[in-house]
Specification:
The protein has 4 helices and no strands. It is mainly α and 104 residues long. Keywords: Membrane, Transmembrane, Transmembrane helix.
Length: 104
């Protein structure tokens, strides 16, 4: 199936993505409401969060530009130093923005 930009194809793609996102999130809430959260389930959830993060970051580290790689380094450094995600995310975003500002 292909969607063209003409005749509302872009809008249809956005609507399909929004519906998929909503159903995924609602389905997760529906399923997890019926699962007792014990130590084993909590370990699984924590491990999944890390593996999803690695799955998102790895392609950027391998195929990304210098800004993406420097943002990854800055994020990792701040996270290791402070052990707080918000400053680490902020450092990564600012590093990528500054890299692209200077490089352009």
């Amino acid at each position: 199936m292909t969607l063209t930009a003409a005749n509302g194809g872009v809008l249809l793609a956005i609507l399909i993505m929004a519906l998929t996102t909503y159903l995924t999130r609602a389905g997760g809430v529906f399923v997890m409401a019926r699962v007792p959260i014990g130590p084993r389930v909590e370990r699984f959830i924590n491990a999944m969060a890390g593996s999803v993060l690695v799955a998102v970051i790895t392609p950027m580290a391998v195929h990304g530009d210098g800004g993406a790689r420097m943002a990854l380094v800055a994020t990792a450094a701040v996270m290791l130093a402070l052990r707080k995600p918000l400053p680490a995310i902020t450092a990564g975003i600012l590093t990528a923005a500054l890299w692209r500002l200077v490089a352009s």
